[in-house]
Amino acid sequence: MTTASIPSFPLNGGGSIPQLGLGTWPLDDAEVQKAIVAAAEIGYRHVDTAVKYANEVGVGRGLAASGVPREQWFVTTKLDGVYQGDDRAVAGLDDSLQRLGLDYVDLLLIHWPLPKRDQFVSTWETFIRLREAGKARAIGVSNFKPAHIDRIVAETGVTPAVNQIQLSPPIPRRQQRAYDSEHGIVTESWSPIGGSGDLLAEPVLARLAEKHGRTPGQIVLRWHVQNGLVAIPKSRNPQRMAENLAVFDFDLDADDLAALDTLDEGPDAGVDSDRSGH
Ligand SMILES: NC(=O)c1ccc[n+]([C@@H]2O[C@H](COP(=O)([O-])OP(=O)(O)OC[C@H]3O[C@@H](n4cnc5c(N)ncnc54)[C@H](OP(=O)(O)O)[C@@H]3O)[C@@H](O)[C@H]2O)c1
Fold first, then answer.
1. Which domain holds residue 149?
2. pLDDT per residue over 106-144, tens digit each?
3. Of ligand 1's atoms, which has the minimum distance to the CA of residue 200?
4. With contact defined as beta carbons under 8 Å apart, do 228 and 7 qualify?
5. Count of other CB atoms within 10 angstroms of residue 37
């Protein structure tokens, strides 16, 4: 797998995001440094972290040790609730950049909307200034619902480039995806292969894996790819990292996609971002 074969999606404010990246939660500094060096050799050029993961120092060391030039990497970090309101995101991003050893991140996300605090609009205004200052090439949100995005767009005129949400065949988030695509927002899937759950043990995945000569994880990641999503599977294991990246050379047919639709657990599945977050 060469990096040239990983497609990218254009972002509404400029630049582009590779369709597959490496998730890094809950790796610690030492583990993530090792993982990124291995991932770079396999062909990954996109890494997802967050202040909350407490591993940005290790991410930065991994990026530096990879030998891959900075401009070839796409690095995302997220600021959580501590950094909402009162321009706290300015110092928050400066501290992140220092830990990462970078001058800019490719994508900066508001980690959770925390609607009861009602500070996400002013946080978004700060993010817009951080983008203008060049410290974040693109800005976006995570775990936002249509009503949250409607508000930031109405009050600032700036649409997020990306919305990173929990998304997988059991939690397909069709309504949010339709909203994102109508608004030119790239939808990015967290826990794309089901996180710590047992998605990959579903019999339908064993059947499709056998049909295509692939693994269950590859079938699920190919579902994300064919649905036009960005996915950030996490693995600490180089063999599984390679497996997760090798999903651009086969196709699921209409019957396969319909079979995966049967895993849908309904609109109440997954984390409710109005009640969660930190
Ligand atoms: N924005 C948010 O609020 C939010 C929330 C949660 C997560 N995230 C981000 O999204 C990333 C991905 O989500 P996630 O880590 O929750 O879940 P995930 O990527 O769906 O699943 C990770 C789990 O799957 C295992 N795995 C990886 N590849 C595999 C394969 N090919 N076959 C079998 N098992 C495999 C991993 O174990 P091994 O490491 O042993 O391979 C790990 O236990 C996170 O790392 C984080 O960067 C964001």
1. 8-199+229-249
2. 999 999 999 999 999 999 999 999 999 999 999 999 999
3. 33
4. no
5. 18
Told to judge if 44 belongs to the known catalytic residues of this protein, a careful annotator would answer no
| Three-class secondary structure assignment of 118-129 | CCHHHHHHHHHH
Give a yes or no: residue 130 inside a domain: yes
- Minimal-distance CA residue to ligand 1 atom 27: 235
pLDDT surpasses 90 at 50: yes
Residue type at position 228: G
Q: What is the pLDDT of residues 141-196, one digit of tens each?
A: 999 999 999 999 999 999 999 999 999 999 999 999 999 999 999 999 999 999 99
- Residue 232 CB less than 6 A away from ligand 1: yes
In-domain check, residue 263: no
H or E stretch covering 142: strand 136-142
For position 55, which CATH number holds?
Answer: 3.20.20.100
The one catalytic residue among 53, 83, 104, 179: 53
Does 268 map to a domain? no
Task: Please work out whether the CB of residue 271 comes within 6 Å of at least one atom of ligand 1.
Answer: no
- Cα of 133 vs centre of ligand 1, distance in Å, is 32
Answer yes or no: is 266 within a domain: no
The total of structural domains in the chain comes to 1
Q: Among 38, 18, 32, which residue's Cα sits nearest to residue 240?
A: 38
Mutate to test the pocket of ligand 1, among 20, 51, 109, 191 (most ligand atoms within 8 A of CB): 191
